[in-house]
Design a protein that fits this description.
two-stranded antiparallel sheet; mainly alpha; 228 residues
Length: 228
């Protein structure tokens, strides 16, 4: 108890200095049974044991050198970075590092599982995107074919339009020629009609003169008959 009190690990009555420490933090030996807290090593118990072991090495006895040797070897095996004269209360035991490594390993395993699950989701998503990409590529190819066919059709339409324009120009020229011919024919018809009208008038006059002569001839015949 005096050693614990001098090290600041206990109060005057021998109880643990900090109320947050478990009951086994005081050096009271091993506990057994259902309430045993020794399933996981406790840093306070380890420091207490090493502190007492170090005090034993200071006691003059035939085993002092052996105890010092054992203390150094045990501290080398227990604490990382141990050297003679170093305060062991400031050192970290290997099992703490191992526990931390195990915790880190568990965290990394969990992270790896999460990453693997995310990778599976990403792979499924990538598969879906690849299928969608193939579908889009097929649609694009069909669209390209449709555009090529539309371009060919448009070029065909342009050629046909050019041909139609040429034919329309030719027909327009033919229509102009026919219009000129029709105008000339109309002029000739008008001239012929004028001539026909003149000839009809002359024929009517001739007919009238013929009737007049026939009447005079008949009158002469009547006179002749009367004279006879």
């Amino acid at each position: 108890k005096e050693l614990l009190m001098s090290a600041g690990l206990a109060t005057g009555d021998g109880s643990p200095k900090s109320q947050s420490w478990p009951e086994v933090s005081a050096f009271q030996g091993q506990q057994t049974g259902a309430d045993c807290h020794m399933k996981v090593p406790e840093l306070v118990r380890l420091h207490t044991s090493c502190f007492l072991f170090e005090e034993l090495t200071k006691v003059s006895s035939p085993l002092q050198d052996i105890l010092r040797f054992l203390f150094r070897e045990l501290c080398h095996c227990i604490f990382a970075g141990f050297a003679p004269g170093v305060d062991i209360l400031r050192l970290t035991p290997y099992w703490v590092l191992a526990q931390q490594a195990q915790d880190d390993l568990s965290a990394e395993k969990q992270r790896a599982d999460e990453c693997e699950a995310a990778f599976e989701k990403a792979r499924e998503k990538t598969t879906g995107l690849e299928e969608e990409l193939r579908t889009l590529r097929g649609c694009m190819e069909r669209h390209k074919q449709e555009v090529a066919e539309a371009r060919k059709t448009s070029e065909t339409y342009l050629v046909e339009q050019t041909e139609l324009r040429a034919k329309m120009a030719q027909l327009q020229e033919i229509n102009e020629i026919r219009a000129d011919s029709l105008r000339e024919a109309n002029a000739e018809a008008m001239a012929l009609q004028s001539r026909f009208y003149g000839a009809s008038r002359d024929l009517e006059e001739c007919r009238r003169e013929g009737v007049k002569l026939a009447v005079e001839l008949k009158q002469k015949d009547n006179r002749v008959e009367a004279l006879e």
